[in-house]
Amino acid sequence: DARVTQTPRHKVTEMGQEVTMRCQPILGHNTVFWYRQTMMQGLELLAYFRNRAPLDDSGMPKDRFSAEMPDATLATLKIQPSEPRDSAVYFCASGLSGDEQYFGPGTRLTVT
Amino acid sequence: LAKTTQPISMDSYEGQEVNITCSHNNIATNDYITWYQQFPSQGPRFIIQGYKTKVTNEVASLFIPADRKSSTLSLPRVSLSDTAVYYCLVGRGSTLGRLYFGRGTQLTVWP
User: Cβ of B95 and A45 within 8 Å?
Assistant: First the structure.
């Protein structure tokens, strides 16, 4: 049963530190998404890639966030420097050229 | 970017049919309607997708009127395990445009 995996599952860090979240999409999927979920804002799309190329990152604060796909099996989301308002659950999802997105279990980030 | 409006919460009892309606007045000609389900501490999960009329799968049915300005997700004979947040999305597919999840509808099923 193919699944999207995310690491770490939980991260607690201090303000100002760099945070890196990793995602392994389902093998063969050509589209990868990064979402952020908070109680206040709900589920927000941060960025997405197709065939490893960034298609849209307009939902991402550019000054501190960056998303990359070093290869087809790894997507990363970095926050530098982190701030308390970045505390959220970050989800990665992958899909094919259709419309169904498969979500990972998420990374719960707490910035103190 | 077509946004959606759906009830914040709904309550039901086990064994009942639940209908969750979503409004999407600005839906574009090429847009599809997709519903996702999210349990606590998990990522959303695809339920069903449609373009017009009716779509049915093993989990739910999706009813879309001719004007496509709204849609209704129907869950037959719900159980406690159907307690979750349900999201209605409108868009042109995961690879072509941004999908807006919104706040979803919290469905609580009681015994």
Answer: no
d(CA B53, CA B64): 5
Name which residue leads in pLDDT, B37 or A42: B37
Phi, then psi, of B80 in degrees rounded to 5? -55, -35
Residues of B in contact with A98 (CB under 8 A): 93-95
B91 contacts on A by Cβ (under 8 Å): 99
Per-residue pLDDT of A40-78, as tens digits, reads 888 888 998 999 999 888 889 889 999 999 999 999 999
Chain A residues touching B102 at Cβ < 8 A = 42-43
Nearest-CA distance from B100 to chain A in Å?
Answer: 7
Contact B85, B43 (CB under 8 A): no
Strand residue runs (E) in chain A: 5-7, 10-13, 19-24, 31-38, 42-50, 53-56, 65-71, 74-79, 88-95, 102-103, 107-111
A85 φ/ψ angles, rounded to the nearest 5 degrees: -70, -10
- Higher-confidence residue of A96 and A10: namely A10
Chain A and chain B share a number of CB contacts under 8 A equal to 64
